[in-house]
């Protein structure tokens, strides 16, 4: 390799890998060659915009947070601006959401932190807290550096009903997981920090809410007119990296000067030598590639579980009556395959008089077998359960599509942050990890993760 001109491989063309490539272009000399290897035929990962009955409907993530944990604009907004797409920013209408249980749709309680209330008495008949459980025991709820499952903490302090009816559906909407298995540190970091100081859960929730740096009046969520695939396309055409599609990276090995990638199908292998690597793929393929070169890191990341989900979009006839909501969440205790629904044409700006679009999310962690039907059956199931959950049968849809995300959502067990720290400490110089498997779901988290990985490897390149 040319000793002056550096080469960096980004393995994985989801938004984390693309963000890493953009940041690498900022941090490295103009002559640096950056290559994004994506084994599928398309960039973007779970950012995929579709169409149904002439209406734009996301097949994956539908929006991103506008504000970061520090109160500044999120990494997603910063990238949108960097790519000149700020004028395309759109925001959902201020329409309430609901919880579906017991044959009715109940308004989502205000003032909770991912479903955890500061005062359970404000929940009305949605959920009742166990009396006397949230007593001050004279010490913080969590020890320094400790982590627990969200459900374990809330169940102990407020009782099962608050977990089952509020926290589970809220976390399920984001992670498709169960509160009793998801890390408090990863999914609710502000509450975890407060729990290391406060002696009661109600005080910890109030403290976490007070520490929030969200700017009043600023929209919480944003998207792009025309779909989030515009963000992917803008990165791809920005010229930050050379894009290689359909060429899987099967092995990663050390060389005297960097890394050798073994590429392509077994009958026709290819190699590529680079100075640094950003690994931006899910946990299992990351672990497989790391095993020969960083076994400790491979073991630390390889145990991460994933949930599989399916999205069903329904185009209902114009004028189909729906509740005055943006959508609803369904607690697992209801037993439905449907876990959430979004009334797309009510939540987002859409021309009047067109079809009524509903996007339905099916499946939770551990329920993969319930998704093992063909697309027609899943669409029919979604349509039927949707009608039951809103309390009125729905007319047949004019069109549907089904998008499956097998193993799509990471399930962060307690202790995830510690395991990740072990993994990163065990990585050889010039190799960095990025993506939802490591640093959290959500578009801003993935972008920030990719940018951090780029910064890590660029420091190594500077020292080489």
Automatic annotation (TrEMBL):
Q: Which InterPro entries match?
A: Amino_oxidase, FAD/NAD-bd_sf, Protoporphyrinogen_oxidase, Zeta_carotene_desat/Oxidored
Q: EC number(s) per UniProt?
A: 1.3.3.15
The broad enzyme category this protein falls into is: oxidoreductase
GO molecular-function annotation terms? oxygen-dependent protoporphyrinogen oxidase activity
Localization per record: Cytoplasm
Cofactor(s) required, per the database record: FAD
Give a yes or no for keyword rRNA-binding in this entry.
Answer: no
Which stretches make up the Amine oxidase domain?
15-457
Pathway participation: Porphyrin-containing compound metabolism; protoheme biosynthesis
Coiled-coil annotation: which residues?
A: none
Q: Which reaction does it catalyse?
A: coproporphyrinogen III + 3 O2 = coproporphyrin III + 3 H2O2
Q: Keywords in alphabetical order, please.
A: Cytoplasm, FAD, Flavoprotein, Heme biosynthesis, Oxidoreductase
- What is this protein's function per UniProt? Involved in coproporphyrin-dependent heme b biosynthesis. Catalyzes the oxidation of coproporphyrinogen III to coproporphyrin III.
* NCBIfam families recorded: proto_IX_ox
The family classification in the record reads: Belongs to the protoporphyrinogen/coproporphyrinogen oxidase family. Coproporphyrinogen III oxidase subfamily.
What is the protein name for this chain? Coproporphyrinogen III oxidase
Lineage here is:
Bacteria, Bacillati, Actinomycetota, Actinomycetes, Micromonosporales
